[in-house]
């Protein structure tokens, strides 16, 4: 009997220790991604080095350069094929008008303060642009099953959508899609790679006026 009680006590202690270790690792996780690309075309009109709402232009950032390659809106004739609702990608350069990537902690869909600040700026930028919508892409790193990661990507995209709605962006101007682990931003393994892939990507769209 004493031997059984001792075994149970040791087992419970081990479980408490392991649980505490997992919790401390997750709480201390840093969302800073030094190598992440916020301005994929490299034209200096990205989120990190420009003001979103300065001037009267239509581009998200107002940095150097001109035309779509610098993350500016273009005429409808230059946009790609519309989806079933008539939405077209606003920035054919792939720069997403310089909008920032939103990062998440491992296996979580909660928005931390640094990422909410990015979304505050996106909401402010969209406030006077009735034809600008967003498709929010949800992404994960490759750990976990494909089914689980698809669901997690969906929760991340929906968390971004819900937050933007609280900041005044009309729900009808936002769509979501989850790619799970299928479209990594960085290839390989290890935390330096994984933290770049745990993300939500806002893709600005031109939407038809009703």
What can you see in these coordinates?
This protein is an alpha+beta fold and 210 residues long. The protein has one domain: 60s Ribosomal Protein L30, Chain: A. Helix content is 32%, strand content 13%. It is built from 4 helices and 5 strands; from the N terminus they run αββαβαβαβ. It has helices at 2-27, 113-126, 146-166, 191-197, and strands at 88-89, 102-103, 132-139, 174-180, 199-206. Strands 1, 2, 3, 4 and 5 form a 5-stranded mixed beta sheet that branches.
Topology:
Blueprint: H1 2-27, E1 88-89, E2 102-103, H2 113-126, E3 132-139, H3 146-166, E4 174-180, H4 191-197, E5 199-206
| Strand element count | 5
Looking at the structure, what is the overall shape? Answer: globular
Second rung of CATH, namely the architecture: 2-Layer Sandwich
CATH superfamily: OmpA-like domain
Query: How helix-rich are the residues, as a percent range?
Result: 25-40%
CA radius of gyration: 21 Å
* CATH topology name: 60s Ribosomal Protein L30, Chain: A
Largest sheet: 5 strands, mixed
What structural class do helix, strand and pairing data support?
alpha+beta
Which percent band covers the strand fraction? 5-15%
Written as H for each helix and E for each strand, in order along the chain, the element string is: HEEHEHEHE
Total domains: 1
How many helical elements? 4
The residue ranges in which pLDDT falls below 50 over 5 or more consecutive positions are: 1-30, 34-58, 62-75
Average pLDDT for all residues: 74
CATH class: Alpha Beta
Distance between the termini: 76 Å
């Amino acid at each position: 009997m004493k031997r059984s009680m001792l075994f149970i006590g040791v087992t419970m202690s081990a479980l408490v220790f392991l649980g505490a270790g997992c919790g401390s690792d997750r709480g201390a996780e840093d969302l800073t991604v030094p190598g992440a690309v916020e301005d994929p075309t490299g034209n200096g009109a990205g989120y990190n080095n420009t003001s979103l709402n300065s001037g009267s232009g239509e581009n998200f950032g107002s940095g150097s350069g001109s035309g779509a390659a610098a993350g500016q809106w273009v005429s409808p004739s230059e946009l790609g094929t519309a989806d079933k609702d008539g939405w077209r990608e606003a920035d054919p350069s792939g720069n997403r008008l310089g909008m920032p990537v939103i990062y998440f902690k491992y296996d979580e869909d909660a928005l931390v303060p640094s990422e909410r600040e990015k979304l505050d700026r996106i909401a402010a930028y969209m406030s006077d642009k009735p034809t600008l919508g967003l498709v929010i892409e949800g992404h994960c790193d490759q750990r976990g099953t494909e089914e689980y990661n698809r669901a997690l990507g969906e929760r991340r995209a929906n968390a971004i959508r819900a937050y933007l709605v609280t900041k005044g962006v009309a729900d009808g101007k936002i769509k979501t899609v989850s790619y799970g682990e299928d479209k990594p931003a960085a290839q390989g393994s290890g935390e330096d790679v994984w933290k770049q892939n745990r993300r939500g990507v806002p893709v600005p769209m031109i939407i038809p006026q009703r």
